[in-house]
Amino acid sequence: MAALEVSAGAASDPGPVRAVNEDRVFAGRRVFVVADGMGGHAAGEVASAIVTDRLAELDMSEDLRLDDIRTGLFDSNQDILVSAQRNPAQAGMGATVAGLAMAWYGGSRHWVVFNAGDCRVYRYAHGALTQLTVDHTEAAELVAAGLLDAAAAPTHPSRHVVTRSLGSDPAPEPDVCMLPPTPGETFVLCSDGLFGEVDDAEIEEVLSAEPTPSGAAASLVSLAVRRGGRDNVSVVVVVHADEEEPSAGGADERTVPRPPSEEER
Q1: Which of 3, 7, 163, 193 could be stapled to 233 by a disulfide with Cβ–Cβ 3.0 to 4.6 Å?
Q2: Which helix H or strand E contains 46, and what residues bound it?
Q3: Which of 44-48, 147-151, 219-223 has the lowest mean pLDDT?
Q4: pLDDT for the residue 149
Q5: Do residues 183 and 27 lie in contact, with contact meaning Cβ atoms separated by under 8 Å?
Q6: Are 135 and 118 within 8 A, CB to CB?
Q7: pLDDT tens across 48-67, in order?
Q8: How much is the pLDDT for 205?
Q9: ∠141-142-144 over CA atoms, to 5°?
């Protein structure tokens, strides 16, 4: 089985308003994560670092499975709780997270998309951008219940009230979905600092104009900062190269080569 040609780039900026960047990003070979820390003086940046560090450990596995990702998220939650117990100044810290991972399921590779909170994952393919995750916010829940028009959600007062986050007791249930990989697709993982300033059409424009994932990530972050950057802004862009046009390599490229085991054949 041929290796998947996957390249990735990441960028993050505190923005001109916030003094501290509580976002953290990770772009590995098969695992990609954006975490947005919560808690301000209660060390939100510590919580987001705990999440990315724990999930980064999964990138070393060439036999990554869906259960491994669920376990990594649960362990991240527990790590935050333990750290807060040991350090009273960190009480109340937490993090939202969105991620993408290449895992084995049913004998073949699948993308695993996951989130808890209001970090997002988008998929860009055939010139169209699709949001794959659902925001875990009060505003989004009002929309789902038919009590709020979707067009009003981006400016609703409860759009920043998060209903799921890591660092909770009991642990939150993350949303998880699986997709078969398709050559030519691009994924965007981001904190709410991006889509709070930049709309979907503008994200599409950047992705169509930028030839590299690192350039696309940097351009998206820069655009959000120029728009006001009222929050930290973090983006990871992941590109699955066309089979007809394999990546030429370079600093951005990370391949995912792993044949199936005997039990998966």
Answers
A1: 193
A2: helix 44-56
A3: 147-151
A4: 79
A5: no
A6: yes
A7: 999 999 999 999 999 999 99
A8: 97
A9: 60
The two three-digit tokens of residue 26, written as one number: 């990770």
pLDDT in tens, 159-208: 778 999 999 999 999 999 999 999 999 999 999 999 999 999 999 999 99
Are 25 and 234 in contact by the 8 Å Cβ rule? The answer is: yes
10 Å CB burial of residue 175 (0-12, 13-18, 19+) is: middle
Q: Which pLDDT belongs to residue 200?
A: 96
Answer CATH for 4-244 from 2.40.30.10, 3.50.50.60, 3.40.190.10, 3.60.40.10: 3.60.40.10
Residue of 143, 147, 160, 222 whose CA lies nearest to 196: 160
Strand-pairing partners, residue 181, are none
Where exactly are the structural domains of the chain?
Answer: 4-244
Element (H, E) at 70: helix 66-86
In this structure, what token pair is assigned to residue 22? 């509580």
Distance between CA atoms of 44 and 30, rounded to whole angstroms?
26
Rounded Cα–Cα distance for residues 103 and 4 (Å): 12
C-alpha to C-alpha distance for 147 and 155, rounded to whole angstroms:
15
Place of tokens 């920043």: 160
Helices 200-209, 213-226: axis angle to 10 degrees equals: 140
Distance CA 201, CA 122 (A): 12
Report whether 194 contacts 220 (CB < 8 A). Answer: yes
